C-alpha cells in the first residue's frame, strides 16, 4: 500500500535540498546515474554485432535509478527477422562497485523492472545494493518490454473467473476448457504477432547474455527467484563460460514435465495448507475445530459446495471452485499471509464472496477497478506453452489429471485442467537436466516448506548442475533469501560479494 507524504514533509525536503545546493553538496536523488553503459565489445557473429555492441543510454527515473531499453533479435536463430525491446532499470551501487547484478522475480511473466524500481529492499538486501548495480529487466513478452497481448479486461475476467457449464472431469468439461484455452491462444496470436513464437526461456536466456555484454560485464552475476531459477539455469547451460555468481532461489526442476510440475505443486500447496491448519488449530479464533485431517475434510467439503453452488460477489462476479482454490493458494505463499485464510474460510462459510474475489484478484494482478495491472497472466501462459510439451487429446488429459489428483487429493483435482490446448505455436521444448559443465559454482537455495517450488526441485537442480551448491532453509514459504533468515542471507551475500561458495551444503 502506498503512503502519501504530508505537505510539510515535502516542503522540508525541498528546504533541505536548497541548503545542500547552496553549500555545494548534492543529494543522491539529484545525481543521475552514468548516462551511458560501455559494452564489453566482445567478438560475436557479424549479424549479432549491432545488438552486442549497442550503447545503452540511461535516463534518471528515481533516486539512484536509471531506466533504458535495449534491442534484441526477435528470433535469435534469424537475427535479421526483426527486433524487440527489453526494458531495464538500474539502481547504482552505493559503495565500492563489483559490477551488475541482474534480478528476476519469477513468473514466468513477473516484471523485474517493477521489482527493482518499486520494491528494491524486498528484491535484494542492503549489502548487495552497496556493492552492485542492481538491474531489473522485463524478459521478452513481459510488461514494458515487447509484450504478449491477448485479451482486454472483460475478456480476461471471463477467461480467469468464468465457471464452466459442464461437470468437472467429464469429456464435455475437458472439451469446454480446452476450447477456452484454444480461443485464448488464438487471441494471443492475433494481438501479439510474431513475438508469440519467440517468448520461450531459451530466447530469454540469450537476451540475458546480451544484457550482460551491453552492461559491460564479462561475467553474469544474477539472482533469480522461482521461475527465475529456470531462466538462470538455462543461461548457465548455454553460456557456462560467462557464469559469474548465480543464485537460484526457489528452484524449478528443468527436467520435470508439465504433469510432474502440477502434481508437485499441488502436493506443496496441500502440505502448506496443513501447516496453516496446524498453526490455526492451536489458536482460539480458528474457523475450524478438531484435528488437521478433520479440518482438511471440512475445507474439501467447502470447495465442493462452492463448486456446486457458486457465490456472487457485490460486483456481480461469481466465485466457483477454481476461483476459490486461487484465493486459498495466494496466502499460502508466505506464513505472514496465513491470517487471510482465517477470514477467507469464515466468509465463505457465511456465503460471502468478496474476500475470495479480492485474494484471487491479487494473485491474478487485477485491480479493484477491474483493470489488470500488467500482462503477467498472458505472459505466464505464452511462455509456459513454449517451455513445456503439451498434453494432446482427452486420454492424455485424463491420465495427467488422475496422476495429479492421486498425489494431492484435496487440491490436485483442480490442477489437472487442460492447458496449452491447440496453442497456435507448437512447442519444441524437451525437458531435460541442465549440467552447465565448466561453470563457476552456482548457489541453489531451497525451502523445505516451499509450496510453489518444492524443496525436492532444489535438491534435483543442485545435483544436476556440475557446480551446484545447495543451501537448505528449514521453514515455510516461497523462496528464502532476504526474508530475515541470517543463515541464508549470509550465505547468499557472502557468495555474491566475495565470490565464496559454501564449502558444503549448509542447512539453515
Automatic annotation (TrEMBL):
Descriptive protein name: Alpha/beta hydrolase
Domain AB hydrolase-1, first and last residues per copy: 101-291
Lineage of origin: Bacteria, Bacillati, Actinomycetota, Actinomycetes, Micrococcales
Family: Belongs to the peptidase S33 family.
Domain Peptidase S33 tripeptidyl aminopeptidase-like C-terminal: 411-508
Pfam families per UniProt: Abhydrolase_1, Abhydrolase_4
Extent of the signal sequence: 1-30
Keywords assigned by UniProt, alphabetized: Hydrolase, Signal
InterPro entries, alphabetized: AB_hydrolase_1, AB_hydrolase_fold, Pept_S33_TAP-like_C, Serine_prot/Carboxylest_S33
Origin superkingdom: Bacteria
PROSITE patterns, per the entry: PROKAR_LIPOPROTEIN
GO molecular function term, any single one: hydrolase activity
Amino acid at each position: 500500500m502506498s503512503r502519501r507524504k504530508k505537505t510539510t514533509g515535502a516542503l522540508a525536503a525541498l528546504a533541505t535540498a536548497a541548503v545542500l545546493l547552496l553549500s555545494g553538496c548534492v543529494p543522491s536523488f539529484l545525481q543521475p546515474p552514468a548516462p551511458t553503459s560501455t559494452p564489453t565489445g566482445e567478438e560475436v557473429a557479424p549479424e549479432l554485432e549491432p545488438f552486442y555492441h549497442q550503447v545503452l543510454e540511461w535516463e534518471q527515473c528515481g533516486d539512484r535509478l536509471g531506466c533504458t531499453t535495449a534491442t534484441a533479435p526477435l528470433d535469435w536463430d534469424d537475427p535479421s527477422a526483426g527486433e524487440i525491446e527489453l526494458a531495464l532499470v538500474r539502481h547504482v551501487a552505493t559503495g565500492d562497485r563489483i559490477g551488475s547484478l541482474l534480478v528476476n522475480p519469477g513468473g514466468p511473466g513477473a516484471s523485474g523492472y517493477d521489482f527493482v524500481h518499486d520494491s528494491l529492499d524486498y528484491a535484494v538486501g542492503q549489502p548487495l545494493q552497496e556493492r552492485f548495480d542492481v538491474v531489473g529487466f522485463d524478459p521478452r513478452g513481459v510488461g514494458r518490454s515487447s509484450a504478449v497481448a491477448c485479451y482486454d479486461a472483460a475478456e480476461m475476467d471471463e477467461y480467469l473467473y468464468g465457471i464452466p457449464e459442464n461437470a468437472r472431469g467429464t469429456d464435455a468439461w475437458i472439451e469446454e476448457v480446452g476450447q477456452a484455452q484454444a480461443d485464448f491462444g488464438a487471441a494471443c496470436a492475433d494481438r501479439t504477432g510474431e513475438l508469440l513464437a519467440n517468448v520461450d526461456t531459451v530466447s530469454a536466456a540469450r537476451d540475458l547474455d546480451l544484457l550482460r555484454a551491453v552492461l559491460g560485464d564479462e561475467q553474469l552475476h544474477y539472482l533469480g527467484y522461482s521461475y527465475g531459477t529456470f531462466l538462470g539455469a538455462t543461461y548457465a547451460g548455454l553460456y557456462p563460460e560467462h557464469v559469474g555468481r548465480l543464485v537460484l532461489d526457489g528452484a524449478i526442476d528443468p527436467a520435470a514435465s508439465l504433469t510432474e510440475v502440477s502434481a508437485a505443486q499441488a502436493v506443496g500447496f496441500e502440505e502448506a495448507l496443513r501447516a496453516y491448519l496446524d498453526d490455526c488449530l492451536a489458536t482460539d479464533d480458528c474457523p475450524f475445530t478438531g484435528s488437521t485431517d478433520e479440518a482438511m475434510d471440512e475445507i474439501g467439503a467447502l470447495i465442493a459446495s462452492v463448486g456446486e453452488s457458486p457465490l456472487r460477489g457485490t460486483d456481480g462476479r461469481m466465485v466457483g471452485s477454481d476461483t476459490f482454490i486461487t484465493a486459498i493458494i495466494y496466502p499460502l505463499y508466505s506464513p505472514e499471509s496465513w491470517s487471510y485464510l482465517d477470514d477467507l474460510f469464515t466468509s465463505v462459510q457465511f456465503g460471502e464472496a468478496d474476500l475470495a474475489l479480492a485474494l484471487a484478484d491479487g494473485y491474478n494482478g487485477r485491480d479493484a477497478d477491474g483493470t489488470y495491472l500488467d500482462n503477467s497472466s498472458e505472459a505466464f501462459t505464452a511462455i509456459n506453452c513454449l517451455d513445456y510439451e503439451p498434453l494432446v487429446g482427452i486420454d492424455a488429459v485424463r491420465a495427467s489429471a488422475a496422476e495429479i489428483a492421486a498425489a494431492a487429493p484435496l487440491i490436485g483435482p483442480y490442477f489437472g485442467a487442460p492447458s496449452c490446448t491447440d496453442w497456435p505455436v507448437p512447442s519444441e521444448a524437451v525437458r531435460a537436466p541442465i549440467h552447465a559443465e565448466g561453470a563457476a559454482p552456482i548457489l541453489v537455495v531451497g525451502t523445505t516448506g516451499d509450496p510453489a517450488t518444492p524443496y525436492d526441485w532444489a535438491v534435483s537442480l543442485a545435483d544436476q548442475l556440475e557446480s551446484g551448491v545447495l543451501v537448505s532453509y528449514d521453514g515455510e514459504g516461497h523462496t528464502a533469501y532476504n526474508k530475515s533468515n541470517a543463515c541464508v542471507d549470509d550465505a547468499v551475500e557472502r557468495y555474491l560479494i566475495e565470490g565464496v561458495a559454501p564449502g558444503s551444503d549448509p542447512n539453515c
